[in-house]
Design goal:
Length: 171
């Protein structure tokens, strides 16, 4: 296992649409292991493969509520198959947009279909933090970031801040 570099805004790779995984090869298993390690190290509760510059439909997550207990999860080719009309608001952040948090409104409950690391297909109902996190991560697979849900004013402000920071870092 290895910790990989997380790409951050305004890296244009974050806007790529990730490709479905056709076969769970040893490379995919190694990638999932690296993503979990990178996610825990960050620390974060969710990571999409594109955040380590791999445009594949692969997500890792841990939204366990119990302190000190780990629940590492891997989602391959995940899709939302239904969403509640009821909405909920969470303050979201993103490892690719460090130290920036804003409230985002999303469906409160979703049903998600995905493959696990052994290739088994599952359907699960998600609510609470799990629902928010899986929607946020699936957005990454489609090149969508949580700042896209904010007002243009707020989005422009955060884009400008990160573009400037990247320019300074490059000097
Ligand atoms: Ni994110």
């Amino acid at each position: 296992m290895a910790i990989r570099d997380i790409i951050i805004l305004p890296d244009t790779q974050l806007r790529l649409v990730s490709k479905p995984i056709e076969k769970i090869t040893p490379e995919i298993r190694a990638l999932a292991d690296d993503m979990l390690e990178t996610m825990y190290e960050a620390p974060g509760i969710g990571l999409a493969a594109i955040q380590i510059a791999q445009p594949l439909r692969l997500i890792t997550m841990d939204v366990s509520k119990k302190e000190g207990e780990k629940d590492p999860r891997v989602f391959i080719n995940p899709e939302i198959i239904s969403s509640s009309e009821e909405l909920s608001v969470y303050e979201e952040g993103c490892l690719s947009i460090p130290d920036y948090y804003e409230e985002v409104e999303r469906p409160a409950k979703v049903r998600v279909r995905f493959m696990d690391i052994d290739g088994k297909v599952h359907e699960e109902d998600a609510d609470g933090l799990y629902a928010t996190c899986i929607q946020h991560e699936i957005d990454h697979l489609n090149g969508v970031l949580f700042v896209d849900y904010l007002s243009k004013l707020k989005r422009d402000r955060v884009m400008k801040k990160f573009t400037k920071a990247a320019r300074l870092a490059a000097k």
